Amino acid sequence: MSEAWTQLLSLAVWVGFVAWTVFSVGLVVRRRWASAEALPRRIDTHLNGLDILVAVFILLIGSELARRLGHAWGWVPDDAEPSDIEPYYYLLASLLTFGLVCIYLVIRCGGPRHLARLGLQRLRMVRDSGLALGALLISAGPMLLYGSLLAVIMYLLGREMPTVGHSLLEDLVTSPDVHSKLLLIGMVIILAPILEEIIFRGMMHQSIGSMIGTDHRRLVLIMAALAFTVVHLPALHTPWMMGQLFILALALGWLYERTGSLWPCILMHAMFNLLNVAWALWLSGSPAPV
Predict the structure, then answer these.
(1) 201/47 Cα distance (integer angstroms)
(2) Among residues 207, 226, 236, 237, which is most buried (max CB within 10 A)?
(3) What pTM was computed for the model?
(4) Is the pLDDT score of 1 beyond 50?
(5) DSSP string, 38-68
(6) In contact, 172 and 90? CB cutoff 8 Å
(7) CA distance 109 to 100
(8) Among 196, 192, 170, residue whose Cα is nearest residue 91
(9) What average pLDDT does the chain have?
């Protein structure tokens, strides 16, 4: 079978999956999701634009400190390629940037006893996991359709579509060390969803809603999703992949709006990252670390 027919067959498969997602899954869970409209909106809007500025300042200081420490400890060699950077540096950078912002937000909310103001209410594993899985299944259709159309466009333009779109996933695939693989998997599946959802849904969503008003919820969703997408741009191999992240961010923001809790968002984000890790390892033929 020629490559062109393979591309067309792949597109047909994804379009079929989109139809299944939209009609089959959507119709099955429609009543449950419709009942979410009646959920009380418990999103606190005590955060504001000043908190975003403080967070940006912390991110700038933390990234510079991580860079200096990475060079001092030999984790980031001079003129190093991304594949030469030690995975421990990514952990250090995450903790000194997003981690410090999360600590600031916890203090801003009044301490660990008031995490509900940030959206970290009591975890209901069955309910929150079901909501996360349902939102992921529904949003998977548009994301896969976008990816398929992007693959066709790249093929027509004579450009190769990268099989792994994120730098951390590429490091995971190329790393020969089992401990490095486990560290990267833990960061992608556990650490990143928690830190990013606290910042982009817990802080960004609340702050934007406080600035422009909670009556403009669609605009809040779009602006918070754009912020999430732009922050991930440096780690993407092609800017065209921003579309899938934007769709994911919209789904996460919608889920946060409907539940008022970060836990379904964290679980959905973790499921999405888990699927990407499994996909990257399968494409590379690399066995999962044991």
Answers:
(1) 12
(2) 207
(3) 0.82
(4) no
(5) GS---------HHHHHHHHHHHHHHHHHHHH
(6) no
(7) 14
(8) 192
(9) 80
